[in-house]
Specification:
Order of helices and strands: HHHHEHHEEHEEHHEEHE
Number of strands: 8
Shape: elongated
Helix content: 25-40%
Number of domains: 2
Structural class: alpha+beta
Strand order of the largest sheet: 1-4
Strand content: 5-15%
Distance between the termini: 94 Å
CATH topology of the largest domain: Alpha-Beta Plaits
CATH architecture of the largest domain: 2-Layer Sandwich
Number of helices: 10
Length: 274
């Protein structure tokens, strides 16, 4: 038997084996195929598709599967909002009643280019995380917004822009409260709050007043006037910053009026804005 005959027989055997195994693989794939609930794709198509992870799952598809398996609540998609919850409930044939509450990301820093003092000129820095890692902040205050816009790039809804003052401005209508920007901010100046009017301190510096004065015009100087003057005893100074008890606060505005640097400001709910 010559070499050509051996090659020919070997080829024929391989083809027959391939056809044999291919047939049985196709046969058994149909026999043991797991039927996917058609509602998974329907629910996934209803979700915003941002794969933000605010629901606690790795993506919208996984969240849709979790809803059908009972591992996730119908109102678990914070980014989708009330309308999305209603559509999911309809797809599931259930009531759309939910305890959904809109959250909005807020930048708790007003110390931008015109308010904060600079300490150095930085070059070659392209992101907040890089500046944080290399300790190349241009500002005296080590707690201030770095202004390179990591939050802008991270936001899947295009709700954030960096203004001329090098501070993030968040559109409360576009913001879905997914929290991606909060996680991405290395300075931790971004926080999520329910869409309710409340008094907030727009400063994150834990430094003492004398040091804050050297760094920023609008930083909290921990003078304690807000705590002393609050008629409801709703403010407590912790780590040189006022912590406001939202349950006690009546929005009287006394703390806002006595704050010498205007670090304390009213955050107005979207529904109450004109």
């Amino acid at each position: 038997m010559n070499i050509l005959t051996v090659i020919l027989y070997s080829t024929i055997v391989l083809l027959l084996l391939s056809a044999f195994f291919g047939f049985f693989l196709g046969f058994f794939s149909k026999v043991f195929k797991v039927k996917e609930d058609p509602r998974i794709e329907k629910i996934a198509s209803i979700l915003p598709g941002a794969n933000c992870g605010a629901c606690g799952f790795s993506g919208c598809q996984v969240f849709a599967e979790a809803i059908l398996s009972g591992k996730a609540r119908l109102d678990g998609c914070r980014a989708g909002g009330e309308e999305t919850i209603a559509h999911i409930s309809e797809a599931m044939g259930m009531s759309s009643d939910s305890s959904y509450e809109k959250y909005i990301a807020v930048a708790l820093c007003h110390g931008g280019r015109n308010e904060a003092n600079t300490s150095a000129i930085t070059q070659g820095v392209s992101s907040c995380q890089m500046a944080k890692n290399l300790k190349l902040s241009p500002w005296v205050c080590e707690y201030t917004c770095l202004g390179y816009g990591d939050c802008v790039l991270a936001c899947p809804f295009g709700a954030i822009v960096i203004n001329e003052d090098s501070l993030p401005v968040i559109d409360p209508i576009l913001c879905r409260g997914c929290g991606i920007c909060v996680d991405r901010c290395p300075q931790k100046i971004l926080e999520l709050f329910p869409n309710k009017s409340r008094v907030l301190c727009f400063c994150k510096s834990a430094d003492k007043g004398s040091k804050v004065r050297q760094a920023c015009k609008v930083g909290c100087i921990s003078c304690g006037l807000c705590e002393k003057k609050c008629p409801e005893n709703a403010i407590e100074m912790i780590n040189n910053l006022p912590v406001i008890d939202i349950e006690k606060c009546t929005l009287c505005g006394v703390c806002i009026s006595v704050c010498p640097t205007k670090a304390i400001t009213l955050f107005q709910a979207l529904s109450e804005k004109k």
